[in-house]
Specification:
The structure is a single chain. The chain folds into four domains: 22-202, Rossmann fold (3-Layer(aba) Sandwich), CATH 3.40.50; 221-295; 301-357, no CATH class; 376-528, no CATH class. The chain is built from 19 helices and 14 strands. It has helices at 22-34, 48-59, 81-96, 104-113, 123-136, 155-169, 221-235, 241-252, 256-270, 279-282, 285-295, 301-312, 314-325, 337-344, 360-375, 379-387, 399-414, 419-438, 477-493, and strands at residues 38-41, 64-69, 141-146, 179-184, 348-351, 354-357, 392-393, 396-397, 442-447, 455-462, 465-473, 498-504, 513-519, 522-528. Helix 19 (477-493) links the parallel strand 11 and strand 12 (498-504). It is elongated and about 85 Å long.
Length: 529
């Protein structure tokens, strides 16, 4: 059976192309060997389930691994202590059929919990059974629980954690699990994120025993190349593995779902366009851009979850809007609740001490979503729709004409506004003008390294052509020269001969319009508003 790229559920080696994560597994095995209890809390669709299942197989030789999924328990199973103590052994007993050398006495004792009078079932008694199991077992017992998020707003779950903590503390005197690994989006050390305000008295988590989990679960360009190497061995497309892996990484920063989704789109959608099913043509820069175009315009569970969080957490929305559109540099502080939530859900990462959006895909999705809220009634968007057909000539995008028309419309619509308004909105309005022109055919990305209060670079991909446009606030000739030099560096990086700069100049004596500047073998087209 041919393997495929997987984005649904856990990855299985015989069915799916996978990144080799043995180095991560070795790090986690070392934590298990030390007897650490820890949480694997990562954003949605970050490979948590695949990692846990693979780790279970990896540890099987030296440990007896009990792997549970709390999604298999219903809401009613968490309503009372007795309901939980009846439901958990039921799920464990199912797992025993897949495990080797489980002590017969333990299997019998756990089975009795499903037959007892529910009113007599106590969590403490269940943990005595667990302790006896750990005492009898020939191998150390490791407990892994996936999707703990489904339980974390229940008091019974806090009691469950308290029992784990108690046995962990007394493990030198009483037999206990060698290691306990909990996986979910929410870090159970911060359960207060799951409780409503009136439940604040329940948030003192008994899980302060958890060791730090610093294993990097994102994919490097080398990881991606390894996975694509397996694909290439099967299909012989002739792709440049290094170049393709580097490009996929540049858009995703190694977010596992995004990496797999792009690869799946190239393999199954881009390769199937037209009459000829041509994988060789799909695994090229043009094929990658086609896949990105599909990805950025589709509805998927990850994007829907991200956008839902913006409504659920208003301060998160405010943080991201400020980060994207105001160009503010926000220092990373994990004690700041908005930053903590943004990092937990995968929106931002800590990069050189600053909170930055995790990857270019998320950045574009967020830009598009925020801009879509401003489309209705926005005059700049309306005139862009009216103008859009004139900017495509023989299939090519005329960026110089786009800038020229934007200057006219911007000055007509907003030229009499205060400078502070123009500084905050000018670049946002250019994106509102640009989007309907390239929508459905091209993509745009923000170069995050240059996004600040005075400078933003936009990279536009349109039918295989790339355009680099520097957007900046005029701060004098010396600053302008530095901006030009930096733009030249980007042209060199993207192997382009022509670049564009849109300058918002609030000097009363400014001269608006288009100027062309020749710098060495490069041409800069500067538009001044």
């Amino acid at each position: 059976m041919n393997r495929v790229f997987n984005i649904s559920g856990d990855c299985k080696p015989d069915l799916h192309y996978m990144v080799n994560i043995e180095d991560r597994l070795a790090e986690m095995e070392a934590m298990v060997e030390r007897g650490d209890y820890f949480t694997v809390n990562r954003a949605r669709q970050f490979g948590k389930t695949t990692t846990l299942k693979t780790l279970g197989r990896y540890l099987k030789k030296d440990y007896q691994v009990l792997s549970l999924d709390f999604q298999r328990l219903s809401h009613k199973d968490f309503e009372t202590e007795s309901a939980f103590v009846e439901a958990l052994p039921r799920e464990i007993s199912k797992k025993f059929m897949l495990m080797d050398n489980v002590p017969a006495e333990t299997a019998d004792e756990l089975r009795q919990f499903t037959q007892e009078n529910p009113a007599d079932l106590k969590l403490a008694v269940l943990f005595e059974c667990f302790s006896e199991w750990c005492q009898r077992s020939e191998k150390p017992v490791v407990l892994m629980i996936d999707e703990v998020d489904s339980a974390t707003n229940n008091q019974v779950f806090l009691d469950f954690l308290a029992q784990l903590r108690g046995y962990y503390i007394d493990r030198d005197e009483t037999a206990a699990f060698q290691s306990v690994i909990l996986a979910g989006v929410y870090d159970v050390k911060n359960l207060k994120r799951k409780f409503v305000p009136e439940d604040e008295h329940r948030v003192n988590s008994p899980w302060n025993i958890a060791a730090d989990f610093n294993v990097d679960m994102s994919f490097s360009a080398k990881d991606i190349a390894g996975m694509l190497g397996e694909y290439e061995a099967d299909h012989r497309t002739g792709m440049d593995l290094t170049a393709m892996s580097d490009r996929i990484y540049s858009y995703t920063s190694g977010y596992p779902f995004l990496v797999s989704r792009i690869c799946k789109l190239i393999d199954e959608r881009v390769a199937a366009v037209g009459r000829d099913y041509n994988k060789a043509d799909a695994w090229t820069e043009q094929g990658l851009q086609e896949a990105l175009k599909i990805l950025l315009t589709e509805r998927n569970t990850l994007f829907e979850s991200l956008i839902a969080k913006l409504t659920e957490y208003p301060k998160l929305r405010e943080l991201l809007y400020t980060l994207l559109f105001h160009g503010s540099v926000i220092s990373y502080n994990p004690l700041n609740q908005s930053i903590e939530v943004a990092e937990m859900f995968g929106f931002v990462v800590n990069r050189s001490g600053n909170a930055v959006v995790s990857n270019r895909i998320f950045e574009t999705i967020l830009y598009n979503w925020f801009l879509s809220e401003e489309v209705l009634g926005n005059e700049m968007h309306k005139v862009a729709l009216q103008d859009k057909n004139q900017f495509i000539r023989n299939g090519h995008l005329d960026m110089e004409l786009i800038l020229s028309r934007f200057i006219v419309h911007f000055n007509d619509l907003y030229g009499d506004r205060e400078e502070t308004f123009l500084e905050e909105t000018g670049r946002r309005y250019f994106l509102l003008y640009l989007r309907p022109i390239i929508n459905g055919t091209g993509n745009y990305y923000i170069e995050s390294q240059t996004r600040n209060m005075e400078r933003t670079d936009v990279i536009v991909d349109y039918r295989g052509e790339q355009f680099v446009i520097g957007l900046k606030i005029w701060r004098g000739n010396s600053y302008n020269a530095r901006g030009e030099a930096q733009l030249l560096d980007y042209l060199e990086y993207y192997h382009l001969k022509k670049g564009y700069m849109l300058s918002f100049n609030f000097n009363r004596h400014k001269q608006t319009g288009i100027n062309k500047i020749v710098l060495g073998d490069k041409i800069l087209v500067e538009a001044v508003v």
